[in-house]
Design a protein that fits this description.
One of its GO terms (molecular function) is serine-type endopeptidase activity. One of its GO terms (biological process) is proteolysis. This is Trypsin-like peptidase domain-containing protein. InterPro entries: Cu_amine_oxidase-like_N, Mao_N_sf, Peptidase_S1_PA, Peptidase_S1C. This protein is α+β, with helices and mostly antiparallel strands. The chain has 3 domains: about 140 residues, Copper amine oxidase-like, N-terminal domain (Copper Amine Oxidase, Chain A, domain 1), CATH 3.30.457; about 190 residues, Thrombin, subunit H, CATH 2.40.10.120; about 130 residues. The chain has 11 helices and 32 strands. The chain starts with about 30 loop residues before the first helix and ends with a strand.
Length: about 525
């Protein structure tokens, strides 16, 4: 858990004054004497107050005392009690105390001091009495970021260090966690189902979580290359998206804005870091376009990659779940579902920790909301009439790789040609080792990549007949068998080359695609 910073509070030190003695009764000498004794005792307590640090009485080399409303304590004792070092420079009668990045320097007889390089004014100057140096307790406590108070019953000065305050807050937080109600999956759905929406862009489909009147949290990859988008609610209502408010490509998160308010309950986004392995979770998203599908499971692991915290879960997700919500059993949003491994029976699915979403929300400004717009495309708006060399460069720059659940598939040797029939033919080779090991497992992802590429090519070259062929090619020191004619050729010298198409996509006003699996 991330310990919260505790703001230091400097409370004025109230020193108990003299109590007003009751009026003596006629002939009541004994009553007057008792009142006088009580008055003397109260005055003595107020003039030599006890000092309590983090609940324990502080043993002092000499009693604390009050002078003109200022309480003085032995310097060495209070510095050490508050976890600071103490150095006494006898020549200059200067006290130097250090704790972490805090340095305090004060001099006997002077109200001017220095705290961490900045000049400060003390309420009273340090003094030396009977060989012991005394300092104002309120100044030292405040400089060392401790809070100070007064026990109204005993008149004792109470000091709480920052570490003790943090520990106390942590204990309170633990008690709060233990007392949180546990919700059933049905109760979580009843509360948040309508707060998860389906997002359709001109490129893809995903999910999103309502976090404001017209603000939706989703994955960056859902909206990254979109030129337009629409949000569809659980009730079938549609709302156009006006643009992206904020995003973080590294953590794969984005906040988008709808043109009109959605009138849906917003989900709270917090810096929750208390997710634990074994905790129950519920995922809500739209896998394969099946809107607001519910799945449940456990937190399988907490992992980190590239500075991003991921919640690994056994709750099933699929394509289209990206940007959906992952709730814990208390109904708290703990992650945004991002990806899963399709070729495994182990339910290996991941959500970006809500911590990163909270950072994004905190960095968002009203100006950013007002100026929401779609992100600039990495592709040119058109390639109509462009030389083949320019088209080839775009393919090599923008379609060089695909991140899959099994790793990165690289596409090299892009070439652009026009055949005798007027077709634009684009060819490339897939990394042969990747395809040999992971080709069948990633066939669906290669298909989706090719489909998206087809839409992009059609946008840039709407009047062209286009064929994209991605091939597997590898050389061997023997003649492989079992291939179709023409897929194995002799290179001479006992070398043989295997080459065959892995992806064959053709499009004009319609799209046809074959992916070898």
């Amino acid at each position: 858990m991330k310990t919260k910073l505790i703001q230091s509070l400097l409370s004025p030190l109230l020193v108990a004054g003299l109590l007003l003695a009751p009026l003596p009764a006629p002939g009541g000498d004994s009553v007057s004497a008792a009142a006088g004794q009580a008055k003397a005792a109260a005055a003595a307590a107020s003039q030599q107050p006890q000092v309590i640090v983090d609940g324990a009485k502080l043993t002092l080399a000499a009693p604390a005392y009050v002078e003109k409303g200022v309480t003085f304590v032995p310097a060495r004792d209070i510095f050490k009690a508050l976890g600071a070092s103490f150095t006494w420079e006898s020549k200059t009668q200067t006290i130097i105390g250090r704790k972490g990045n805090i340095t305090i320097s004060v001099t006997v007889g002077k109200k001017d001091g220095i705290v961490s390089g900045k000049p400060v004014k003390l309420e009273a100057a340090p003094v030396v009495k009977k060989g012991i140096t005394f300092v104002p307790v309120r100044f030292v406590a405040g400089a060392l970021q401790a809070s100070l108070g007064l026990d109204s019953n005993t008149g004792a000065i109470t000091i709480t260090t920052r570490d003790a305050a943090a520990e106390e807050e942590y204990e309170d937080w633990l008690n709060e966690q233990q007392n949180k109600p546990v919700l059933t999956s049905g109760e979580i759905v009843d509360t948040y189902d309508e707060s998860v929406v389906l997002i359709m862009t001109n490129r893809a489909q995903g999910s999103g979580v309502v976090i404001g009147d017209n603000l939706i949290l989703t994955n960056h990859h859902v909206i990254a290359d979109a030129a337009s988008a629409t949000v569809q609610t659980l009730y079938g209502d549609e709302a156009p998206v006006s643009g992206v408010v904020a995003y973080d490509a590294e953590s794969d998160l984005a906040i988008i804005k709808t043109e009109e308010p959605l009138d849906l309950p917003a989900v709270e986004v917090t810096y929750a870091l208390d997710s634990r392995k074994g905790d129950k979770v519920v995922a809500i998203g739209s896998p394969l376009g099946l809107q607001n599908t519910i799945s449940d499971g456990l937190i399988s692991n907490i992992t980190f990659e590239g500075g991003v915290r991921y919640v690994q879960t056994s709750a099933p997700i699929d394509h289209g779940s990206s940007g959906g919500a992952l709730f814990n059993e208390h109904g708290e949003l703990i992650g945004i579902t991002t990806l899963g491994y399709s070729g495994s029976n182990a339910d290996l699915n991941f959500a970006v920790s809500v911590f990163h979403a909270a950072v994004l929300v905190d960095e968002m400004t009203e100006e950013m909301v007002e100026n929401a717009k779609f992100l600039p495309s990495k592709l040119p708006s058109t390639l109509a009439g462009a030389p083949l060399a320019d088209i080839q460069k775009v393919m090599a720059d923008q379609f060089a790789s695909l991140s899959t659940t099994e790793g990165v598939a690289a596409f090299t040797k892009w070439e652009a040609k026009r055949d005798a029939a007027g077709w634009l033919v684009l060819t490339a080779d897939i990394d042969p080792l990747f395809y040999m090991y992971y080709g069948p497992a990633t066939a669906q992802e290669l298909r989706m990549w090719a489909i998206n590429m087809g839409y992009d090519l059609h946008d840039m070259l709407p009047d062209d007949k286009i064929q994209v062929v991605v091939s597997y090619e590898r050389d061997f020191g023997f003649e492989p068998r079992g291939f179709e004619p023409g897929q194995v050729t002799s290179l001479g010298g006992g070398k043989w080359r295997v080459r065959y198409p892995v992806i064959d996509m053709q499009l004009k006003d319609q799209l046809h695609i074959e992916v070898r699996d």
